Amino acid sequence: MKKKILRQRALAVQRYLAGESPGTICASLGKTKPWLYKWVARHTPDDPTCFEDQSRRPLSSPFRTPAEIEKIVEMVRLNLYNKGLFCGNQAIQWELIDMQVQPLPSLSTIGRILRRRELTHRRTGRYEPKGKKYPELPALLPNQTHQVDLVGPCYLSGPIRFYSLHAVDAAIKLCGIEPMPSRAAQSVLDAVYALWLRMGIPENLQVDNEWAFFGSPTHPRGMGPLIRLCLRYGIHLWFIPPSEPWWNGIVEKFNDHYQ
User: Fold this and answer.
1) Is 168 in contact with 146 (CB distance < 8 Å)?
2) What is the pLDDT of residue 219?
3) pLDDT band at 126 (very low <50, low <70, confident <90, very high)
4) Is the dihedral angle over the CA atoms 210, 216, 217, 223 positive or is it negative?
5) What does the pLDDT look like over 29-48, one tens digit per residue?
6) Dihedral angle sign, alpha carbons of residues 149, 154, 160, 161
7) pLDDT given for residue 164 in this prediction
8) d(C-alpha 55, C-alpha 65), whole Å
9) Which residue, among 51, 48, 73, 70, has the nearest Cα to 61 in the 3D structure?
């Protein structure tokens, strides 16, 4: 079918160049004069592809999202995905707002970027152990060991973004939830202290390597506020190995129910 169309265009141009009237050519082919003049204008003797259809894509796209913004969206999505956090359009947009990215892409634009870059897949399968040894903390008595984890960002209609600090007593499975406006150091301290007032102060506090617990990426070797708070009250603070959330299995299971 395509070859037939190309031959028709070439024949029409040849007849026109041979001196045949445009009206006669168009009447015999069932085409209009603008159609004939279009292919006559595109005719190039040295170009065998001059009768091919050309892309209708505009030469410029002034409203297209800059390539730098698309790359940032991709990196943010992969970072959230690798951390096991929410990584949908709204979560990515909140991260871009925190990063003060301009121009800020809309939710629909973020969705199109993810589809173009094939980043809409979901996590499947089980976590695989890395083979690192880690001490199993005692959990025979109440407040002997608390497992703590930070969940979020979470979203409510509005949209409203918040974080949630979860704590579970590993011995009696008493759990506590404390919502937070952000994962800033002071918010974490306020939430931890609020949970201690309700659940009691533990001997051991087990957390993952979230910066909100450890410290700050600006000062990676410094002691964060949570470390100093635990030292103040004589609490042993334990950090599980990176990328091995099953060591915090009790609170991770609670997170699944919460979500």
Assistant:
1) yes
2) 64
3) low
4) negative
5) 888 888 888 888 887 877 77
6) positive
7) 83
8) 21
9) 70
Q: Tell me, what DSSP letter sits at residue 59?
A: S
DSSP 183: -
Residue pair 92/112 in contact by the 8 Å Cβ criterion: no
**pLDDT score recorded for residue 243:** 66
Q: Give per-residue pLDDT as tens, 132-186.
A: 566 777 788 888 888 888 887 777 776 778 888 888 888 888 888 888 888 777 8
Contacts of 194 (CB under 8 A, 6+ apart): 178
Please tell me the distance from the alpha carbon of residue 75 to that of residue 21, in angstroms, as a whole number: 61
For residue 56, give both structure tokens: 């209708």
Rounded CA gap, 76 and 79, in Å?
A: 5
CB 221 within 8 A of CB 163: no
